[in-house]
Amino acid sequence: GPAAALVVTLIYAMPPMARVTKNALDQVNSEIVELGKMVGCSTMQMLYRILLPSIRPRMMLGVNQVIMLTLNMVIIASMIGAGGLGYNVWQSLKQLRIGQGFEAGIAITLVAIILDRLSQKIATRRPVYHEQKTKFFQKNIYLIIIFLFIIITWLCGNWFSFFYNIPENMTVSSGRFWDGIIDYININYHGPIRLVRDFFYIYLLKPFKMFMISIPWFVVVLLVFTIGLRIQGFALGLKCSILVLFIAMSGFWEKAMISVYLIGTCVLLANLIGIPIGIIAASNDRVHRITQVIIDTFQTLPAFVYLIPVIMIFSVGDFSAMIAVVLYAVVPAIRYTDNGIRQVSSSYLEAAKSNGCTKFQILRRVQLPLSLPDIMLGVNQTLMMGLSMLIITALVGTRDLGQETLIALSKVDPGRGLTAGICVAFIAIIVDRLINAWSQKRKKELGLTTSIS
């Protein structure tokens, strides 16, 4: 029912907000903190009057991610009784009515874009100060007009159905248009598409898959322990290696390695594509605006919607799963890189220019090192979003932990499904801890950590 859908969506969409807020608080300028201490701010005053206002642009990035992830859950939520647009998409996909599924998916995307633009304007809005003698109606004229308009249209809706639902003979459908595009691609470009698919599978996916399956479990345990030891010390290496050992002892080792191979390939490609685009978007406002619209569309368009066209164009298999995961997971790499570079203080840029640095030197020596924590946060989110696609990719024929979860659901075997899900979570935790530890180490080297107490 709706209550269960609400809980599931909350659990899925909440972590990025917490992570972005923590990351932003860690990077507050030490001069701002010292100013708060000098004027005698208490801990609560420091937080609500100084720290939170100073990180509002970064926090709105987290709000944006919450909006996108929430809307992306509408189809899964519809499976447990939430209804809404997600139910329309789900029913269309079950009947392979691609055009109708796209229409509902585009409606979800437009809702996301509207909420995203409003949240961005709220983040950049500056308070407007009025004289004390200003009347209430003069100060809130636009709010009053909007409120009156809502009341009038609501009252009119009681007598005229047009104000509630547009008549069916006035609606426009684009379903046949999308169906025609898929048919055209399959008829005219089947040969080149098959050539690209076979090339990637034979020379990239299959060799990496065979390599990952052939690695003994104890080698992976030692490798993860060594990496953790080098980054942060014995404790991190021990924790991560214990999680790897659990996966090996669960009986899902081969499935786990297939999951690591698929998600690792997808995350690598997503970051190779997303980080350069984010760098370009950060240096060009026009590209930034265009990119924002595209990535909002990609992230909010439910994975189920573009998974079906991918299957119908590339057939089932690992390559189709890779395309779907890359399209879905490339968004954080672009968004966090763009935001991280834009958040670099102008004082650093002015210092680099005064020393005669070229644009490329400023990017390489100043902007990228200082924005590296944000970029690594994007890499982390790319990985998490890729792992969240495992069950969906199992629908196109992958034989990994996602397939085990799907089989457990179909056979009502909660123990098997829960164990496979825990293995997926442990893979995510291992990589998350290693990336965060390395990012914190890098922050200390760059002097970006701030003491708030």
3D structure, described in words:
There is one protein chain. The protein is mainly α and 453 residues long. It folds into 2 domains: 1-126, Orthogonal Bundle (MetI-like fold); 191-453, MetI-like fold. 81% of the residues lie in helices and 0% in strands. The chain has 22 helices and no strands. Helix 14 packs antiparallel against helix 15 (285-300) and helix 17 crosses helix 19 (359-387). The chain starts with a helix and ends in a 7-residue tail after the last helix.
Roughly how many Å is the radius of gyration?
25 Å
Number of strands: 0
What does the largest sheet look like? none
Q: Tell me the fraction of residues in β-strands, as a range.
A: under 5%
Order of helices and strands: HHHHHHHHHHHHHHHHHHHHHH
* Proper CATH architecture of the largest domain: Orthogonal Bundle
* CATH class bucket of the largest domain: Mainly Alpha
The percentage helix is over 70%
> Would you identify the CATH H-level superfamily of the largest domain?
MetI-like
Number of spatially distinct domains: 2
Number of DSSP helical runs:
22
What's the overall average pLDDT, rounded? 80
Structural class category: mainly alpha
Structural shape: globular
> Terminal Cα separation, in Å?
44 Å
Low-confidence stretches: none
Per CATH, what is the topology of the largest domain?
MetI-like fold
Helix-strand blueprint:
Elements: H1 2-26, H2 30-38, H3 43-54, H4 56-72, H5 74-79, H6 85-94, H7 98-124, H8 136-139, H9 141-157, H10 175-188, H11 190-214, H12 217-231, H13 234-249, H14 253-283, H15 285-300, H16 303-314, H17 318-342, H18 346-354, H19 359-387, H20 390-394, H21 401-410, H22 414-446
Helix pairs in contact: 1-4, 2-3, 4-7, 6-7, 7-10, 7-15, 7-16, 11-14, 12-13, 13-22, 14-15, 14-17, 14-19, 15-17, 16-17, 17-19, 19-22, 21-22
